[in-house]
Amino acid sequence: MATSGQVAYRSPSVGVRWVLIAASGLVLLAGFQLFIFSEETSRYFAWTIRPSVTAAFLGAAYWASFFLEFLASRERSWARARIAIPAVFLFTVATLVATLIHIDRFHLSSPEPFARAAAWVWLGIYVLVPPLMLVALVGQLREKGKDEPRYLPLPRWLRGVLLGQAAILLGLGSVLFVFPQMAPSLWPWMLTPLTSRAIAAWLLGIGLGAIHATIENDFKRLKPAMISYMILSVLQFAALFRYSTDVNWNAPTAWMLVLLLATVLLVGSYSSMRVLRIGRKLIGQTSRNNV
What we know:
The protein is mainly alpha-helical. It has one domain. It contains eleven helices and two strands. It has helices spanning 14-36, 41-44, 52-74, 78-81, 85-101, 113-141, 156-178, 183-186, 193-216, 223-242, 252-290, and strands at residues 2-4, 7-9. A two-stranded antiparallel sheet has the order 1-2. Strand 1 and strand 2 (7-9) form a beta hairpin.
């Protein structure tokens, strides 16, 4: 249990830490498969993804989530770690549903041994992780202590931007998940029903994370999320640049996506700088107190 003076603050439970550590390792691997081998998903991934920009887009999201989960697992306060939990849980459940709907698209019987293994591992992960997260959360709720107080609330404009992003992400994600046939009019490159739902799962998770950030309303509590947010935008821009020929740049949705990613970069970069300043200030205060 973390302490500050005589006040005991609630710490992340052992179960929550291990779930986050395990999840961070798994998404790091998935990101490597998708972002590095974007054109080789028929050989190295759980299902074949075309066009390659979709694989790179998904890989960027997986890699960004590594920073969210790993950094959250390192936090000593539950108030600073829990930003990862609701978003990851929603994404995982949505991805499980998409997997079960499109199970025939997976390489469960592929002649490629790596692809076949990847498909079975994928299925096992998404079946097991949601209940494990719930069990860990139940254990967390039994932890004693209180939440750390808020150190530095978000400015009103930043909360407004986050809520606007959440509205777009949750709205778009819901439509792409429930009505994947609408993808051609909502997304700037070709999506299959499976890839529409796979991308939608990320949009829903990130959208929920944006709402959660406004509820936590404290830069110190949002460190894992905002660093992940910044990295997400950079990697997504890299994916779009790498596979720019896959994108229909004549479609308004392409530039709407670029604008959305630009706002994500703005929010993530600004918030990350504020977090770093808080860290330097706290280190300085500690040094003065020890003199």
